[in-house]
Amino acid sequence: MSNARHHHYLSQCYLKGFTQGNSKKSKLTVFDLKSKKMFETIPRNVGGIRDFNRIEVDGLDPNTIEKMQSEFEGKVAKALKELNQNLDFSGEVKDLILQFIAMLAIRSPEMREHLSKPLTKIAETIISSNVASKERWETQIKKMKEETGEDILNDISYDEIKQFVDEKRYNIEINQEHQIRMELTGMDTICELLHQRNWQLIKVSEDSGEFITSDKPVSLTWNFPDKVPEYISPGFGLKNTMVYFPVSKNLSLVGEFDRDNGISQANQILVSMLNSKVIANCYKRLFASKSNFDYIAKGHQLKKGNTLLMNA
């Protein structure tokens, strides 16, 4: 593990609950909505990229975060197993799974890109502001020279610097350590808000079909979207919102502020509706134990998963 470079942001211990045999070596059916391809593979081969958790900090093992992640996922694996077996969403099991949901809600390559955009925009604004005039630029250079004792211009003129900035002949990269720090802070906040919700366990029945999941498994939606302006996004702390999380192919969780805790059994229509929520929320890929899961297509038609890519 200390030398591992392929890091999973979508945990294998989670994905195995959607395989045919409920193990890390069992097959998943993967639907890639962007390439419009369907294939089978094992959890290890999806939901991971190189060095996702790697850090470069003096005095620390670069895989410190990955090791912590592995230890946490070991506890989560046991909690997921207990919940699927006992249907008791309380105590340590609840604490671990809500922390896991918070992690999945904020940690992914797509979310990193999304969160880095405003930081990049701020940096671009600062750079442009510093070269807005020759006087302002010279003031900045004077301050830096007083602080460092060095002349960083190396005989580069203001006009050259202004052209360089105006033509955006530079790249801005957000430090990965900073991104991970933001994720950990965000996880704590989301987890606290998840604990304030009440939770319904929804289990499948003999004829309801199975739940699916995706590369964005935590869905946050308005209960009554028609009553909310389109430009207002739901938040984990806002009333009249629902958090949906498929636990496994046989079990899911729904969290709301104004709903009682409890356990209910799903019929085919409810499973199809919740699967449709997963489809609408995903980034790129869906994961299921079989290709014939149920979902609701446009026109409120009940369809099978093996028709999904034809409609994508």
Give your account of this protein's structure:
There is one protein chain. This protein is α+β, with helices and mostly antiparallel strands and about 300 residues long. The chain has nine helices and 13 strands. It has two domains: about 5-115 and about 175-310, no CATH class; about 115-165, no CATH class. About 40% of the residues lie in helices and about 20% in strands. A five-stranded mixed β-sheet has the order 7-8-9-5-10, covered by helices on one side. A four-stranded antiparallel β-sheet has the order 3-2-11-6, with helices on one face. A two-stranded antiparallel sheet has the order 1-4. The chain is elongated and about 75 Å long. The model has no long low-confidence stretch (mean pLDDT about 90).
Write a concise keyword list for the protein shown above:
5-stranded mixed sheet; 2 domains; 9 helices; alpha+beta; 4-stranded antiparallel sheet; 312 residues; 13 strands
Helix content: 40-55%
Radius of gyration from the CA trace?
A: 24 Å
Distance N to C terminus = 38 Å
The strands making up the biggest β-sheet line up spatially as 7-8-9-5-10
Mean pLDDT metric: 91
User: From N to C, what is the helix and strand string?
Assistant: EHEEEHHHHHHEEEEEEHEEEH
Which of globular, elongated, flat, extended, rod-shaped describes the shape?
A: elongated
Structural class: alpha+beta
Percent strand: 15-25%
Number of domains: 2
What's the main sheet like? 5 strands, mixed
